[in-house]
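Annotated sample (chain length 416).
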Amino acid sequence: TAVSIFESIFTPFLYGNMTVIDNSAMASIFPFIGQEKVRISWVRAEARAQKDFYIYDVKDMKTQTEGTGSYTLTFTSEKQFRNNINLFSKSYSGNAADIIKNVYDEWLIEPGSDKKLKLNTTAAASHNVVFPYIKPLAAINMIQKNALAEDGTPMFVFESMYSEDTVLDSMKRMLEQEKVFTLEPVPMSATDPEPTREMNKYDGQIYSTLMQKGYETLGRTGDGVFASQITAVDIAARKADITDFSFREHAKPITNDWVSAYFAFDDNRIHTQYNTMNRIMYKNTLAFNDDDFPNLTGLDELEVAIINSYFSRLRTVSVLAHINSVPEIECGKVVEYKKERFSPKLAPADDPDDKVSSGNYLVASIHHHIRRKEYTMSVELVRDGMGEEADLYANQEVNLGVPPRRQVSILDYSGD
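Output written by the structure step:
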């Protein structure tokens, strides 16, 4: 009677559940033990979605009427099952994106399958990495948290319902794509004699929207998202360096910046408040290391701060939209969201658009929900910034204030 499937750029697999009405004693004839496969497919606007999943749980089993019951089956992608049964210990060398692909293809894909990880970007650096008895998805996550894409932004591994491929992509490349759809209020007239005749004009119809959060600054400031210090302790060289991170210099906004260049506290610009956090990094530049392929403990100390800043700022604004389904809307794609201002239109010349909240957003997650013949999507839209047409800080030069320090040694025992 209902099927729910979830996809997200933060999750490298699909998962979901379905509610079943049973009057043939299926659940009584055999138990669901976690090895059953289910194929779910549908066609929407000539686009076919089809995926195979593994059932792993049965819940909410109850009697509906005499001789009839219902229960919910939860399921997940095959790669999550393969992740659970594969613990490996192995070393890899090469570009960080290629290492992710090699781990994915070797441990998460059925042998002989041609469904390999698709690389939409490559990493900025190459590494030697030793994984000591680790699950494949944990290994991939380790690389993602420590390696930047070639464009200097974090990398994401994810799959979507309407695509055959699981992809690796960068935050910047995704945010700078052309939009695939525009979400805007389209009122459905109750006086239409046959509203089903032109139902395609209601694709993407917004049933409800909620801005879950936006422009939260206090917590992000304390977490070192805008500025921080990094103390890198090199165990092999017996020294420590301190480096200042400023998001305006090292992790520049990709979308229209929402933090004023004059945003300050105690006359110090927010991007020069280096005392908000001190990150401690331990490095060992001599462990499984050479000039061309550093290990993950020999990274540039700024990279971790950059990755953390971008990850946190990606959800600076989060909009949840419940809409009529559109196959073009997938995780990792860009849509335009049009929002009206919270004010009455008092004159014909009044602009009804909310320039700050409207604009292009990245689709971060989708909840596909099918109940009987109704198919809707709950879509999370995110971005780091405000609308492209908003111009709140015109003619303003960015003041970097005190220049960031770069590798100022605070400990050095390399001498006698």
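Annotation: The first helix runs from residue 26 to 29.
Annotation: Helices lie at 26-29, 78-85, 96-107, 136-144, 171-175, 218-222, 247-250, 301-313.
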